[in-house]
Amino acid sequence: MAIDATLLGILACPQDKGPLLLIADEMLYNPRLRRAYPIENGIPVLLIDEARDVDESEHEALVARGTSTTD
Known about the structure:
Elements: H1 5-10, E1 21-23, E2 27-30, E3 35-40, E4 43-44, E5 52-53, H2 56-65, E6 67-68
Antiparallel strand pairs: 1-2, 1-6, 2-3, 3-4, 3-5
């Protein structure tokens, strides 16, 4: 299930309030804080406690795959 484009345009990181990258309808990613937020059944889970930290190698891969939610 794809996330609605209008919704993507207004989503922001709950921690730093900045834009997120959409990673293939799997997660939303904050490259500034290197935090990944899951998408479950098409619904973004933007809870700080549900996010996970991303290491350097995964960060590079996610940034390469990501689509800006503000485009």
